[in-house]
Design brief:
This protein is an alpha/beta fold. It has four helices and ten strands; from the N terminus they run E-E-E-H-E-H-E-E-E-H-E-H-E-E. Helices cover 23% and strands 35% of the residues. The longest helix has 14 residues.
């Protein structure tokens, strides 16, 4: 089963996957889709507040962060990593449980990334905001780093997330019944 939608002017068929006995979600995988990353980056930047640097979580939104930074004339962005790397000095860490991952994850920032964020206007971006768990973890990590979050953006807001007053998204992604119909 698929859900077809237009995202940043481009039509995509999103496969549906069950996350529980009574709930399915549409998988929006922008990793590897150059066209959707370019189009979404352009539309998000048009809605973005003024910022100094972009922060995102590993991995699906990395190409989006790259394209947004490039279009904004910036030479860098920061990625909160999902694994501790040997080169990460004095790492900051937070835990996160995402609806699309079956286990608790951790997000890490090394000292060099913390220095890029400290005291700066940070724009947090993601591909999809759903329950807000990943977003909350990124915010907690940014707070630990001394960053000033000026905006939170996503290409899509899933379910009720579009009604949040604290995020900007290009469009709403519905959630689904097991038979593929949109949940009310």
């Amino acid at each position: 089963m698929y859900y077809e939608m237009t995202i940043a002017g481009l039509t995509r068929k999103l496969p549906l996957f069950p996350v529980s006995d009574d709930l399915s979600i549409a998988a929006f995988i922008m990793l590897g889709d150059v066209e959707i990353n370019e189009a979404a980056a352009k539309e998000l930047l048009a809605k973005a507040p003024e910022f100094d640097i972009i922060l995102t979580a590993e991995a699906k939104s990395i190409p989006l962060a790259h394209e947004m930074a490039r279009l904004a004339g910036q030479n860098d962005y920061v990625v909160a990593r999902k694994g501790l790397k040997v080169y990460m000095e004095d790492p900051l860490v937070v835990s996160v449980e995402s609806i699309t991952t079956a286990y608790e994850q951790h997000l890490y920032l090394g000292k060099s990334d913390v220095e890029k964020l400290r005291g700066r206007r940070v724009l947090v971006i993601d591909d999809v905001i759903s329950t807000g768990a990943s977003l909350n973890a990124i915010e907690a990590l940014a707070d630990k780093a001394g960053a000033n979050i000026v905006g939170k953006m996503a290409v899509l807001a899933e379910g009720d997330a579009m009604d949040r007053g604290d995020i900007i998204a290009l469009d709403k992604l519905p959630v689904f019944n097991p038979d593929g119909t949109v949940k009310d």
